[in-house]
Amino acid sequence: MLQLLTAEEIAFLEKQNLALDEVLWVEGMSVSERKAVMKAQGKLIAAGGSPCAIAGHRLRTRHGHCVQCDTAKIAFASRASKSASVYVLHSHSTGLVKVGVTTNIDDRLANLRSQAYGEATDWKVVFLSPELKNAGRIEISLHKALRSHEHEGGFSMRAGTVQRSTECFSCDSEYAVGLAKRLIDKD
Length: 187
Ligand SMILES: [Zn+2]
Known about the structure:
The structure is a single chain. By secondary structure, the chain is of the alpha+beta class. It has two domains: 2-77, no CATH class; 85-186, no CATH class. The protein contains six helices and nine strands, in the order H-E-H-E-E-H-E-E-H-E-H-E-E-E-H. The chain has helices at 7-15, 31-41, 72-77, 105-115, 135-145, 173-186, and strands at residues 23-25, 45-47, 59-60, 85-91, 97-102, 123-128, 155-158, 161-164, 168-169. A hairpin with a 5-residue loop joins strand 4 and strand 5 (97-102). The longest helix is centred in the last third of the chain and has 14 residues, at 173-186. The chain binds zinc ion (ZN). The site of zinc ion has 7 residues, from loops. InterPro entries: Phage_T5_Orf172_DNA-bd. This is GIY-YIG nuclease family protein. Residues 86-178 form the Bacteriophage T5 Orf172 DNA-binding domain.
């Protein structure tokens, strides 16, 4: 996901403490597709769709409001101000690692398994932090630190729509857990 966003967009997400997990890349999706996939996956922000008329921003709510023009739309749509846990998951079958934030790890796991996220249905939790105020910011730092290990997930078809799985990493799960712990300690 980081590779698809501009530096300005990443800085905006960090400032708002929005997690990458909450962003869906919607390039090429119709409005109805975007809404359906965002709802199904619990995503708050759509990125990469048509730019806003005022300033050409690309981050919008599910309903199409530009969150960069009006940050109040985020507060309305999001859990940005709530605490959440940072997690690291590992899939034995693919060897991939996924990092993210959630307020409900059981729901997140069930959702990722049922989507076969990253073509894996055996995601297991290898690290779960306590609830942290700055979980979104830590997640972005973690993605940045793991960037060189990003796995090209490509595209998969689910429920008739194309979904992108670019949030997995090909790295040792212990390495990702170590990084997560260090970033949390530092924050
Ligand atoms: Zn805008």
